[in-house]
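Q: I'm writing up a methods section and want to include an example of the input and output format. Could you take the sequence below and give the corresponding predicted structure tokens, formatted cleanly so I can copy it straight into the document?
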Amino acid sequence: MPLLFAYGTLRLQEVQHATFGRALDGHADRLSRIEPALTEIDDPEVLAVSAARYHPMARYTGRLEDHVDGTAFEVTDDELALADRYEVSAYRRVAVRLDSGRAAWAYVAADAPPPDAVTPPPAAPP
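A: Here is the clean output for your methods example:
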């Protein structure tokens, strides 16, 4: 099963139930060389699900001291497609290597350089 690293609203059970129809199973992990930021959400469907106008966002910096804590969730390929529909255009899904050494998908700032790519988890990119 592919892993999806979430550090924001996809960690919330109400968002998981609305997006995937279930609560996801996952483990704490960290993504380094990333700094946390916020982005304003104006998509009415996402606002209705998350109930938050500002969502966390990860921006690649390359600095080892920067990191974002989150959760690596096991998801299906179909659930990755559902996550792609949930995330707004300010985000893009990229393959990352988590601090645990596991490969995962993560949503990062679409307008920033991507983290160093790794061999993607077993799922087709969006």
